[in-house]
Design goal:
Blueprint: H1 9-34, H2 40-43, H3 47-52, H4 62-65, H5 74-99, H6 102-116, E1 125-128, E2 136-139, H7 148-193
Antiparallel strand pairs: 1-2
């Protein structure tokens, strides 16, 4: 009676296949360790804060979110971080310019909130500044009418200017001394809380 010899051809093939799979798996693990995956939240300074900002549209996130989860070399990561710092600084310079002009800052926020709205993003607007101090966003009429937005501004502008004037006289001006006083108290408190220097 013939018995299968130990270490037959089939056994050797099975062991060889197992070895090949083991080395392939080890190589993949080593490669993954050499090239970690990219995560902008972890790898880019200030990314999450910029992404959560109401001014997020100023920042070019797309080129970085496209890399999310992909393997990246140390050199490529350093390059991405360098590009992010340049992009972030450029966006923050635009943001500083906006914040230096509160009416334009408010208008920018309004435009972008309308653009992200499920309803208002589908509406075509005409922007009219013919009335000093007031910006009209006028929905385009179903039928084109000459000077439609300008006529709306002409009809409602004087009334809105009167409302603006009343608000300034009855609320803004009386509250300015209180605001200034509160600011002075805050500055004084911070000064007194600062450690004395010798």
């Amino acid at each position: 009676m013939n018995t299968p010899r130990k270490g037959s051809f089939r056994d050797r093939c099975a062991r060889l296949t197992a070895l090949i799979l083991f080395f392939a798996s080890s190589t993949s693990i080593a490669r993954a360790q050499d090239h970690p995956t990219f995560d902008p939240s972890r790898d880019l300074e200030g990314y999450d804060a910029c992404f959560a900002s109401p001014f997020r549209d100023l920042y070019p996130f797309d080129s970085y979110t496209e890399l999310l989860g992909k393997e990246i070399t140390a050199a490529a990561l350093a390059d991405a971080q360098k590009r992010w710092r340049v992009d972030r600084d450029a966006a923050e310079a635009k943001l500083a310019a906006l914040r230096a002009d509160p009416p334009e800052e408010t208008l920018w926020l309004l435009r972008h909130r309308l653009a992200r709205s499920a309803y208002f993003s589908k509406i075509t607007w005409t922007e009219d500044r013919s009335v000093p101090g007031i910006v009209f966003l006028v929905q385009r009429p179903a039928k084109d009418l000459p000077d439609y937005a300008k006529n709306i501004a002409r009809d409602y502008g004087p009334w809105l200017q009167k409302v603006q004037s009343l608000f300034e006289e009855q609320y803004a001006k009386p509250l300015r001394p209180i605001e200034t006083s509160c600011a002075s108290i805050g500055t004084s408190a911070r000064t007194s809380a600062s450690p004395a220097t010798t």
